[in-house]
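W.,

You were right to be curious about this one. When I first looked at the sequence I had no strong expectations either way, so I just let the prediction run and decided to look at it fresh. Below is the sequence, 155 residues in total, followed by the output.
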Amino acid sequence: MFKSNTDNKTDPRGDLYAGAKACAKCHQNIYNSYLNTAHFLASNPANEFTVDGNFSKGFNVFQVNDSQKVVMEKTDGGLFQNYYLNGKVKDRYRFDIVFGGVKGESYLLWEEHKLFQLPLSYFTNEKRWSTRFPTASDYTIFGAYPSYRHLSRRG
């Protein structure tokens, strides 16, 4: 269940999506109990209040190797994973959806009615950003992850 922070936000699933509130009209008790389930709480629109990952300087960098890094950044436009190659920003991808939260979080990008998982996740207990790759230094971070949008453009 994708919950919205405000009623006037457009749901990324489109205008035909009725939403949980439509069900609540006839099933209020079920709806109220659902609001406290892990399933409901497991995903949210990504913003500074729903993402646990650390964006503070010194804690927001994932160094891949000497020439590659990913820097997490907060701007007025949202939260981003910025891929740097040789000190220059090569790609910039917005956090749109956060899921997880107990042991860690992963993030999704919503683009053209498709979801793509961002390559970095945040591990809550370790308080660090990390990849799901076996060895991050073996890959170009934004080009290696199979579900990532960068690859879908090439294929």
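Here's what jumped out at me. The first strand starts at residue 43 and ends at 45. And, maybe more interesting for your project: Strands lie at 43-45, 61-63, 68-75, 78-85, 88-94, 97-100, 104-111, 114-117, 120-123, 128-131.

Coffee later to discuss?

I.
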